[in-house]
Write a structure and sequence with these properties.
Radius of gyration: 24 Å
Distance between the termini: 36 Å
Number of helices: 7
Strand order of the largest sheet: 2-5-6-11-12
Number of strands: 21
Shape: flat
Structural class: alpha+beta
Largest sheet: 5 strands, antiparallel
Helix content: 10-25%
Oligomer: single chain
């Protein structure tokens, strides 16, 4: 699940918890759940711990019960922890650096003000939504008109992290990834956007749906491929002059698309809530309501 170069021990985490004890260690998992093993073999129990699980220099806070296992999806001492076990306040994961607590409230407000200026310059008939893709407390914005643009607010500026067409989108909240799907001239495209701890990543794959038909979860042999093409894609088959190259192209695309699905999940299998990416019209009223 997560590894860390350092942790911060707390006693009375929210009230007086600024004392800091550093450990090296790693997450462990067994049939019961997750627990944290320090390098000396000890493990936290009946306590809150700040852990930098993804090594980005920012720690999240976790509670470990008397048996040493991490708590998740519950309330401890009046504080909520989410499905990943991290302490959340008003739905926002709380974070800390070695210098102290990271307050994202004002930064998120500045982000909204910056997004508002972007939207005021766009087509009034467009649409937008806010979504904290990487769950760091500062929302990203997805703006849609004739194309979809994904914006992030970093270092006091709005930056575009992706521009694409968009015929469908889902947010994989568990893995902090936005997946977009669209078809163009018979080519089905799928793109994943996520933050890897240092930078925004855009990863994509495409499949020639109109040419080879629906994607098959099994790579067809040369003979099976052409048997299916003769029957199901006869109009394409009759124009193929270099069968070896055609099959190799099919094979390469199959491997690329299959690798994408293996990495990010198939469309139907990703747990998501459509409300996460639901658009509103880019009107003054909506901007005033959502961007303040």
């Amino acid at each position: 699940m997560k590894r860390s170069l350092w942790t911060i021990g707390l006693a009375g985490v929210m009230a007086a918890g600024l004392a800091m004890t550093s450990f090296a260690g790693e997450w462990r998992q067994d049939s019961v759940g997750y627990w944290w093993r320090n390098d000396d073999g000890s493990y936290p129990a009946s306590s809150w711990q700040w852990l930098d699980g993804n090594r980005d220099g920012v720690a999240e806070c976790y509670y470990f019960g008397p048996d040493g296992y991490m708590a998740a999806n519950t309330e401890i001492d009046g504080y909520q922890v989410n499905s990943d076990g991290a302490w959340v306040a008003n739905g926002v994961v709380q974070k800390k650096t070695e210098a102290g607590t990271v307050d994202k409230t004002q930064e998120n407000k500045r982000a909204k003000e910056a997004y508002k200026k972007v939207l005021e310059g766009e087509n009034i008939n467009g649409y937008f939504c806010l979504l904290d893709i990487n769950q760091d407390g500062v929302e990203e914005m997805i703006s849609s008109s004739w194309q979809t643009v994904i914006y992030a607010y970093q270092n006091g500026q709005v930056m575009e992290i992706g521009t694409t067409r968009d015929e469908g989108r889902i947010y994989d909240k568990k893995n902090k990834r936005l997946i977009i799907n669209y078809a163009h001239y018979g080519i089905e495209n799928r793109i994943a956007y996520f933050y890897d701890g240092t930078q925004w990543i855009e990863d994509s794959a495409n499949w020639y749906n109109d040419h080879w038909g629906d994607f098959s979860r099994h790579l067809l042999s040369y003979d099976a491929f052409y048997q299916e093409m003769r029957i199901e894609r006869a109009s394409v088959y009759k124009d193929i002059t270099d069968k070896e190259s055609e099959y190799q192209s099919y094979k390469d695309s199959w491997e690329e698309w299959n690798a994408f699905i293996e990495k990010y999940g198939d469309w139907e299998d990703i747990e998501h809530d459509d409300r996460d990416t639901e658009n509103v019209e880019n009107t003054p009223a909506n901007r005033e309501a959502l961007l303040r």
